[in-house]
Amino acid sequence: MSEQAISDSAFAAFLDQGQLQGSRCTSCEAVFVPPRGWCPKCHQSDMQWTRTSGTGRLFAFSCIAIGPPWMAAYGYDRDHPYCSAVVELDEGPRVVGRLEGVDTNDPENIKIGMWLVLQQDDSKSDDSRICPVFSPV
Amino acid sequence: MTKKRKLGRGVAVVGAGMSPFGMFAERTSTDLFIEAFQEMTGSVDKGFEPNDIDALYLGNFTNDFFVQQSHWGAILVDALGLVPKPATRTEGACASSALAFREAVFAIASGFYDIVLVGGFEQMSKQSTEQVAEGLALAASPYEREAGFTYPGVFGAIATAYFDRYGATREHLMNVTIKSHENGRLNPKAQHQRSISEIMASRIEKAASRGQSPPGWQDEKEFLADPQANPVIAWPTHLFDCSPISDGAACVLLVGEELAASFTDTPMHVRGLGQASGRNLHAADDLTSFEATRFAAREAYEMAGLSPADIQFAEVHDCFSIAEILHGEDLGFFDPGTGFKAVAEGLTRRDGPKPINTSGGLKCKGHPVGATGVAQLIEVWQQLRGEAGERQIPAKDLRFGAAHSMGGTGGTCTFTILERW
Ligand SMILES: [Zn+2]
C-alpha cells in the first residue's frame, strides 16, 4: 500500500519497479487495474492502492504486423510482428499490455488461457508509454 | 432498463446523396462534400431551395489529424454558399455522422428548425497506412494505444475471444468478406466493386501475362487463405477482413414530417433511435458482444415498438469482418454465438431472409469514417425506396430498414430505424 495519489504516472512508476498496482474502492471493494481514482460503481473517490500478483491468463490477443510509427521505430514490422493482449489477472480485472516470449509468427500456438506473468520491461526505459509486459510462465 | 422514448415531432428523410468512396489524391473533403450535396439536391423529388436549409450538422472524426485542418462546419457552409447558416460538427469516432443525424432529428423534433442538412466526410488517403493506423487509434483508450493496439489488432483480439468461446474460425470471417464483395460489386459508389472470384480471375490473368505460373486457388477461400494474396495485418485479422482507407462524403436532408409531402411523395420516416456508450477493451464485461450496441438497439426497438424480427434488412458497422458477426448477434437478429453460422448459411445475403450490408458494407463500399454513419442511412433510404438498382433486395414490400454505427471499440454506438409508410 502507498499513500501516493492515484494516477497514471504513479501506475507507470510502479510498473517500472515491476509491480502491477491497481486501486480498490473502500466502499464496494471493486479492484481496478489500471487504477481509477473514482469508483465508477459507487461514484465516490475513496480509493486505495492495491498490489496485484502480476499473474493471470491470456484472454485475447493479436499479433500485429502493421503497428503505429513508434512501434515500427522499435523494429517491429511485417516480418517481426508484436503481440498486444488482454490479460485476465488472478484478482479478476483485465488489463491490456504486450505479450513477449511467444512466437508472433506462429500465432496458432499462442493459446487463450495460457498462464502469464508480468515481466520487468527495461528495454524501453525512455518511453513514457504505459504498457504492462507479460510473458508465459 | 430503458425508457420508451418518442420524438416531439416526426422527422423524415427527403433527400440523399453521396460522393463515390475511394482514394482520391486530387480531391479534398470540400470537393467530395459538394458532390454529395449536388446529388442530394437532385434526389429531392419535388425540388428544393438550398437557402431554405435552416442549419447543418456535420460528422467528422479526425480530418484534424488526417489533413491538419479543423473547423469544418464553417468551411463547408461557405463552400456550399450557405453562409450564415449555423453548422455544428459532431465527433464520435466512426459513428460521428450517425451522431450528426441524431442531433438534426432532435433539432427538428424540438420545433426549433424545419429543414436540416446532415453530412459526414473524411479524407484519409493522404497518409501512409501506418499513419492512418495511428490516426484511427486516436479513438482507442490511451491504455490500448500504448499497449500497441491498432484497430485491426483490437478486432483481431476480439476475434480470438470469439473463436475461443464459440468455436468459429477464420473461415467464418471469410464468409463475411465474400458476401460483402458480392454486394459491393453491384454498388457503383463502392470503393471495391469486384467479387472475390473476379479479383482472383484478374490476378490469374495478370500472372499469365507476365509469363508466371498462375496461382492455383481452387476457390475463394483458398485465395483468402493464401498469405501472399491476403496478408496478415494483425492476426487473425487479414487484409480482406479490413475496411479500406477511404475518402468520401455523404449527406441527407431532414425535414419536419408534416412538411415532407412538399419535397417528395416517398419520404422515409425516423421510426426508432438509439444511442449508448460502452467501455474500453480491458474494462468490457465481454469481448464477444458490445454492450453499447445492445443498449442502443433496445432503445430504438422500444421507441419503434418493433422487434429485431421486424427489421427486414440492415447496414451494420463492419469495420472488420468479425464485427459484422458480433453486431448481428447484439442487434438481436441472431442468438449469441450463432452469428457466424447465420453468415455461413447465407441468411445475411442480399437474397436471404435478413440481408446485411447490401451496400457492400464498410468493407467494400469504403469507410471514410466520418461519412460512414450517413452513408449507411443512404443505403437504407435507397433500399426502402426501391432505388438500389442491381443490388435492390428482392423481397417485396420493404417497410423497415435500419443502420447501426459504432465508434471505436464500441465506445459509441447508434441504431436508427427508418420506415416507409
Ligand atoms: Zn465502489
The number of helices of chain B is 15
What is the overall shape of chain B? globular
Question: Which H/E pattern describes the elements of chain B?
Answer: EHEHHEHEHHHHHHEEEEHEHHHHEE
CATH architecture level-2 label of chain B: 3-Layer(aba) Sandwich
The main β sheet of chain B shows up as: 9 strands, mixed
* Uncertain stretches of 5 or more adjacent residues of chain B: none
From the structure provided, what is the oligomeric state, counting identical versus distinct chains?
Answer: heterodimer
Helical content of chain A stands at: under 10%
Order of helices and strands of chain A: HEEEEHEEEE
Describe this structure in words.
The complex is a heterodimer of chains A (137) and B (421). Chain A has helices at 8-16, 69-72, and strands spanning 21-25, 31-32, 47-51, 55-64, 82-89, 94-99, 115-119, 133-136. With 137 residues, chain A is mostly beta strands. Chain A has two domains: 8-51; 55-136, OB fold (Dihydrolipoamide Acetyltransferase, E2P) (Beta Barrel), CATH 2.40.50. In chain A, the strands form two sheets. A five-stranded mixed beta barrel of chain A has the order 4-5-6-8-7. In chain A, strands 2-1-3 form a three-stranded antiparallel sheet. The radius of gyration of chain A is 16 Å and the shape is globular. The two termini of chain A are 26 Å apart. In chain A, 36% of the residues are buried. The mean pLDDT of chain A is 93. Chain B has 421 residues and is α/β, with parallel strands linked by helices. Chain B has a single domain, classed as Thiolase/Chalcone synthase (Peroxisomal Thiolase, Chain A, domain 1), CATH 3.40.47. Chain B has helices spanning 29-43, 63-66, 72-80, 96-109, 129-136, 142-146, 151-166, 170-184, 196-209, 220-225, 291-304, 321-330, 339-344, 361-365, 369-385; strands at residues 11-18, 55-59, 87-90, 115-123, 232-235, 237-238, 247-256, 268-277, 313-315, 400-407, 412-419. In chain B, a hairpin with a 1-residue loop joins strand 5 and strand 6 (237-238). In chain B, helix 1 (29-43) crosses helix 3 (72-80) and helix 8 packs across helix 12 (321-330). The longest helix of chain B is centred in the last third of the chain and has 17 residues, at 369-385. At the A-B interface, strand 4, helix 2, strand 5 and strand 6 of A face helix 5, helix 6, helix 7 and strand 5 of B. The structure holds zinc ion (ZN). Residues 25, 27-28, 30, 39, 41-42 of chain A line the site of zinc ion.
